[in-house]
What does this fold into?
Amino acid sequence: MGLVLTMQLRPSLVDYGVESQLPVMVGLAIVREIGPVITALIFAGKIGSSIGAELGSMKVTEQIDAMTVSGIKPFKYLVATRVLATTLMLPLLTILGDAISLFGAYLGVNIRSVTSFSLFFLQVFKSLNFSDVLPAITKTLFFGFAVGIVGCYKGFNSSKGTQGVGISANSAVVLSSVLIFIIDLLAVQITELLGLN
Amino acid sequence: MELSKAENIIVIKDLIKTFGDKTILDGFNLNIQKETNVVILGKSGSGKSVLIKCIIGLLQPDSGSILVFNEDITQMNEDELDQARSKIGFLFQSNALYDSMTIRENLEFPLLRHWVDIDRAEVDRLVSEALENVDLLHTLEMMPSELSGGMLKRVALARTMILRPEIILYDEPTTGLDPVTSREIENLIIKLQKKNHTSSIIISHDMNCVKNTSDLVVLLLDGKCYTQGTYEELKQSTDKNIKQFFE
It folds into this structure.
């Protein structure tokens, strides 16, 4: 992500004679937008579909009904735990994703020129403010919540046997991806309203 | 509440359940006495499974009442239903074992969530005892995917019995099993019923199972209780709706 972004941005910046600003631009783009959104979309593809398929399969094989008749609340045991996990883990994964992307960007910068590791990251971190990091990480909490709740909802409402499990997994990814973009849009508006941009 | 053997533990009155414009149960009535095995007989799609799902509270009927130990299941909230369900076991047609858990975990799961103060040694003892009852103690650490259909059914039966329910609902316990395994399951149902003094409702259209396990056979037809009697009484009937099951 960071490597590709760097290679795509370089020619334009060279044209304007601001190639030295490459780490700043890449850093801001990754931390504020690309890192959270791309990580959330991958997360929706991997975890959202897996939750949808797992709960869908439990639904069609009557495992959820078995829990209910044993007097165990499936919502508490299956939904609450998964939604909590996705909400809390996505911000951590985003931080990891950002770090890997920034390292990729550092490699990208060094393909055509020579910049030291410390200089690159000094430039990146110098350009970042609290108001860049906090809204970006905060919105990933909502992305994670959306992925978890959509996956669980689709899984719980699975029907039509094994075909239904596939449909649940698929629609969990599609719906949570759309929700991620909608939440992202709202997050930008709210950040602007709060003067954090 | 202590009930004498002759008292009704389940009383179903005027039960109606529809799905869209299709009426599945149309004023169904039935009384079930303590320590009795009742087999509900009916064609596929006649509403047998819907009936037992209404009894356990998985489906809400449109009208009518289901009294279990004199308490109406249809009027209960979720917490009250959970309490009532601790007295009712349900053996699913698909077994419904949790496929991400070992057999031990499958059996422990309801125990640990219902009896929160239970100690580890007691859990182990109850799990071993339940598996011994179905002759599958050696499967303790195996996954459900490693077991055959008949073994899965026996484990599911062990899990159903582990909370010591007073009523057990069996949804087609022998469907899809070979005759020898079916016979084993039927014998287990009878053995466990005698040992634990439970009452059972068995949904089946396997006539061997009906013959071997029933004290009372109820024929469900057009959403109603068409007739009821012992296996032999129904077998001797000349009514064509009854005869077709025994031919």
Summary: The first helix of chain B runs from residue 48 to 55.
